Amino acid sequence: MKKIILNKTKELFIQMMWELVGSAFVAIGIYNFAVQAKFPMTGFSGIAIILFRFAHMPIGLSIILLNIPVAILCYKLLGKKFLISSLRCMILSSIIIDYVAPLFPVYQGDRLLAALCTGLFGGIGYAIIYTRNSSTGGSDFIIMAVKALKPHLSLGNIAFLSDVGIILIGGILFDDVDGIIYGMIVSLLFAVVVDKMIYGMNYGKVAFIVTKHGRKICKVIDDCCQRGSTILNAQGGYKGDEMQVVMCACSSKEMYQLRKTVKEEDPESFFVIMESHEVHGEGFKMMNIGNVPTAPGESNSFLTFQKKLK
What we know:
This protein is of the alpha+beta class and 310 residues long. The chain is 64% helix and 10% strand. The chain folds into 2 domains: 2-201, no CATH class; 204-276, Alpha-Beta Plaits (2-Layer Sandwich), CATH 3.30.70. It is built from 11 helices and 4 strands; from the N terminus they run H-H-H-H-H-H-H-H-E-H-E-E-H-E-H.
C-alpha cells in the first residue's frame, strides 16, 4: 500500500514539475514578449491581454475568470482527470504570468523578433503541457473538445483556426493592422512548434526492401536494430519474377545502420526509404491527450457523447 502511495506521489510530482516548466515557457512568451510588443495574442491569453490593455486587469486573473464557464461546459467531454490537471496547470501559469514573469527583463526590441520569440516560447510551453496530458484551460479546452470529436485533425491546425478570430478582434479594437500580421505569425509558430514536438515523438521512417531473400533480411533487421518486419509477396513488373518486399518501420537514427547492414547481406536488394510522420505500436511511444484517441481503431470514450449530439 505504501509503495502504491509512493509511486502515485512520485508520478504527481513529476507531472507538476513538467507543468511548471511548460507554464514558465508560456508565461515568458506572453508577458516578457507579447504584452510589450502590443500585438494580438491567441486564445484566452489574447482576450486577457485585451482586458489588460483596456482596463489594466491582471492577465493571470482574467485567464482564470474566463476559464470557469468553459471548464464547466467541457467537464463531461474531456474527463475529470484531464480537467483537474488542466485547472492546476492554468493556476500555475496564471501565477507565473502575474507574479514571476514581471521579475525578469521585458523585451523591448523589434516586434518581429518579439513575435518569433512569443511563438517559440509559447509553442514549446504548450507542447510540454499537452504531452503531459494537460492544458492551460481556456481555448485549450475548446481545442481538445474539437480534437475529441474530430480525431483526424492535428492539434496545431485546430489551435490555429480557433485563434484567428481573437487575433482579428484584437487588431480591430486597437486599430493595428501590423499587429494582426504579427499575431498570425505567432499563431502559425504555435501550430508548427506544437505539432513538431508532439507528433515528432512518433516520427520515424519506413523501409521497403525488394529482395529474393526475405527471411534472411528479416533476421538481419532483427539482429541489427531489434525491429519487427513484414514480408509481402510481390512480382516483378518486367520479367514477372517472384520477389518479396520486406517492410520495416524504425527510427531515423536506426535507418542508416539498417540500410548498411541489409546492403551487406544482399547487395542486389532494392531499397526504398519513406518518411513516416506517425508510427504507433511496439517500440514507439504513444500519447493520449485527455481522452482523445491517438490513432484510428483505439477506444473512443466520446462515442456516447457524439450519439447524444446526434
